[in-house]
Amino acid sequence: MGGESCYQVKILSKQLNKRNFSTLLAKHPKLNPWFVTGFADGEGSFGIIIYKDNRIKGKLVLAVKPSFQISLNSKDINLLLQLKEIFGCGINVNTRNEASFRVNSIQDLTNCIIPHFSNYPLLSPADFILFTRIVKLINNKMHLTEEGLLQIMNLRASINLGLSNLQKSKFPNYKSVARPVINSTKIPQPN
Fold this sequence. Notes:
By secondary structure, this protein is an alpha+beta fold. Helix content is 41%, strand content 16%. The protein has a single domain (26-170), classed as Endonuclease I-creI, CATH 3.10.28. The chain contains 8 helices and 4 strands; from the N terminus they run αααββαββαααα. It is globular, with a radius of gyration of 19 Å. The two termini are 27 Å apart.
């Protein structure tokens, strides 16, 4: 097509070379919830960490930690602070080159993150749907049982890159669940 210079509209990448996200959004201090959803669709991640926790006593020593995260260049920390203000929860981690907005608390995921993306749906919600099912299992204390932990592993196997080789070896009976089929590509709101 001849490159960006042939397009008749302004290209966002040219604007971003001059400014960062925070500068572009400075004129709009209150983010539109649909913008937040679209931004999270592109930059966010719903993840489940399963790890051995030495503080847990008994037969099951694995802990399940769901997390929603958006990571950007540290110069865009202002946008992440706006996300924290909109959601009313989360923490910001700022290193030299990277800034992250992260929500790990089951209560905050249940009361803030999941309701937002239920009311303002993602265009690619498959991981979110599976993530939500895992959070519900945790809320119902199913992660404390062998059966519940296997259900979580089955769901986790279908999220993002699936299970690690170590997790597969620890749960040889896991069965990935089918990822939800999404047929809609219509953007419900231009923000």
